[in-house]
Amino acid sequence: LNWYLRAILTANVYDVAVQSPLDAAPKMAEKYGVKIHLKREDLQPVFSFKLRGAYNKMAHLSKEQLSRGVVTSSAGNHAQGVARAASVLACDATIVMPVSTPGVKVEAVRRFGGKRVTIVLHGESYSDAHAHATTLVREESRTFVHPFDDPHVIAGQGTIAKEILEQHPAEIDAIFVAVGGGGLAAGIGSWVRSSRPATRVIGVQAEGSSAMMRSLHEQERVRLDHVSLFSDGTAVKEVGALTMALCSQVLDDIVVVGTD
Q1: Under 8 Å CB-to-CB from 177, ≥6 apart: which residues?
Q2: How far apart are CA 98 and CA 96, in angstroms?
Q3: Residue-level pLDDT at 113
């Protein structure tokens, strides 16, 4: 975990991201009888935490790599992060998105990336889009910007945990983290496990998209035949090798929730 701690400390995210507020949720607190705070990553310039990891990865590329351009696959939020990073770094990006991606996210990618971005709609899920993206990487000799299974992407997302602990220096019982491919959970868990081990880190997965929970239970990566698209941003058939290894070390528990 030491590498990730250093990488989170030096992550290059604030060229494009902001330190999002940690807001109290008084009505939820009253309902459940505990203090609840929400880390407002929806207030990022691209409305998602994904900007952190995408930019941190691309900022670590050489000038030669940036000149050749990048390829990525995404259900939407990572695509917007890559598009924004491509615009700032003057790098061309081909972004493969599932055909099920909400139109509002496709349009957002075009808006954030402008002329730097080419959008390809392919497949029913993130995993289908990913397979097509890897083919483009081979054919075009570009760099693949993975939405979760990359050390610099994981470190970029981990800056969220650093901010949380700075914003709330008092004791925190637990941090609940959405899990798709596992990049956010791996990054947050790595920082919390080393900086404040008494705080539990609990992954949360959508019913029908529980690849991480099944993989951790079986101690090997499990590929789902189908995924529920209700939570399209976490609809991943197979988690990452890096993220699974880290999550097995840093998550205290993982729970699955229904659509309600």
Answers
A1: 184, 185, 188, 189, 201, 202, 203, 204
A2: 7
A3: 95
List the Cα angle 143/71/208 in 5-degree steps: 120
Q: How far apart are CA 124 and CA 150, in angstroms?
A: 23
Q: Which residues in the chain belong to E strands, given as ranges?
A: 22-24, 37-39, 70-73, 93-97, 117-121, 143-144, 174-178, 200-206, 253-257
pLDDT tens digits, the chain, 260 residues: what are they? 899 999 999 999 999 999 999 999 999 999 999 999 999 999 999 999 999 999 999 999 999 999 999 999 987 889 999 999 999 999 999 999 989 888 988 999 999 999 999 999 999 877 788 899 999 999 999 999 999 999 999 999 999 999 999 999 999 999 999 999 999 999 999 999 999 999 999 999 999 999 999 999 999 999 999 888 788 778 788 999 999 999 999 999 999 999 88
Rounded-to-integer distance, Cα 62 and Cα 69, Å: 11
pTM score of the predicted model: 0.94
State both tokens at 128: 């289908």
Dihedral sign computed on CA atoms, order 259, 214, 124, 70: positive
Measured over all CA atoms, what is the biggest interatomic distance in the chain, rounded to whole angstroms? Answer: 56
Q: How far apart are CA 71 and CA 94, in angstroms?
A: 5
Residue owning tokens 């000149």: 67
3-state helix, strand, coil in the chain (%, to 5): 50, 15, 35
CA–CA dist 195, 88 (Å, integer): 32
Q: Are 55 and 81 in contact (CB under 8 A)?
A: yes
From residue 50, alpha-carbon distances to 29, 85, 158, 215 in Å are 27, 11, 11, 23
Q: Give every CB contact of residue 137 below 8 A, 6+ residues apart in sequence.
A: 71, 143, 144
